[in-house]
Every structure is written in structure tokens, then in C-alpha cells.
Amino acid sequence: MSMAADARMLWHLLRGASREGSHAQRLQRFYAPQAQGYDAFRERLLHGRRELIERLPAGAGARVIELGGGTGRNLEFFGERLAGFAAFELVDLCPALLQVARARADRLEPGRARNLRLIEGDATDYRPAGTPDCVYFSYALTMIADWRRAVENAVAMLAPGGTLGVVDFHLPRNATPSSRFWRAWFAHDGVWLSDAHLDFLGARLDPLYRDERRAPVPYLPGLRVPYYLFIGRKR
Fold this sequence. Notes:
Largest sheet: 7 strands, mixed
Mean pLDDT: 87
Structural class: alpha/beta
Number of domains: 1
CATH superfamily: Vaccinia Virus protein VP39
Helix content: 25-40%
Low-confidence stretches: none
Radius of gyration: 17 Å
CATH architecture: 3-Layer(aba) Sandwich
Strand content: 15-25%
């Protein structure tokens, strides 16, 4: 990504997210100007996505749903597995990001995209026609005010024994100056960090994998943002 493109992206981030209108309207206003450069910039910020997808126990014949799928970047992390799924639904509330996802899907080999559907919908209440074996969120829960409802919705739609995966930013339990900094910094752009995600996920599912990490942030040398990976099985 060029310095000029980075500068444009940073300008939008510094301006912050609107607090007016519905959640869908706020997302569209914030992300529409960023949509084309979204992936290139956030590739250096959204860590752990490939690993989460590689760890998801979704094999041939599985029905998979990504809630809050945005630009569809995560589709590429599945590689050849994507073609073997019985169904894959990518759900997002922001038309601008879905437009990028549709263009990405059009570039996939026809065989890999044959069971792919892109859907404009809300992660808190979207329900598929069939029962998925695997649902996941990738840096989406922190953008959903009622994230507990989104998790409950995902668990409810899963088949018995199905798996839910999440990778996202979070706050460690101990409140520190850096925790307060990250909370304020992300909130400016409509991303709401929480220290409650992992406990809530662990209470609703049988954990299969859980890890907490820190990663570098573009243009903030020396600072490392906390994030986590979680995979759990529906009881």
C-alpha cells in the first residue's frame, strides 16, 4: 500500500465514526470512503485471521457462515477448502464492504465460489435457511453494540456439536493505562473493546481453543494491541 493511500486511510480513521443514525447507516458512512483500501491497510492490523480459519474444524460438506464478513478477505484464507463446503454464507450490514466482497467473489475460480452467498444482514438477528456446522466472527464482535445478542444468535443457529470461532481485539482483565488508551482509541472509530468476550464465550460453549496475544499496530511504534482467538463447541 502506498504512503498516499495510507495517509487517506489514516485521515478517515482520525475523523472517526459518526454517532448519528442507525448502526447500518453509521457503518456505511464510515466505511464507504475506505472500502477500496480497507484490506490493504487492515492487513497489518487484523492479526490472527488466517490462523483462526485454519483451526476451524470445518471440512468437506460443512455449512459455514461468517457473520460480519465485510470485504470477504477471509474467503481467501480457506484456500481449496472453500470449494468443498456444502454452503458458505457471508453476512454483513454494510453495503460498501459487501460491494468489495462481491468483486472478490467474482474473481474466485467458478468451482470455489459455487456454493457462496453474500447477504446484507444483521449479525444479531440473521438466520439462515439451513443449519450451519460452523459460524465465525472475525473482528466483528467489537463493532456490534449488542455483541452478546450476536453470540447468542450464532449459538442458536448452530447444529448440535457445531463450532463457533472468534478472533477480535479485546482488553485484558487488569485495567492498565494501555487498556484505557486502547479503549478510547478504538471507540473513536466505532470499535468497542471489552474484557467480557472470552468469559461469555466460555460460558456459552465448550472451549476447544483459546489464546490471548498482542500485535503491532501500523504507525504506532512500540505499541502492541491485545487480541484473542477462541473456538468453542455447542453443547
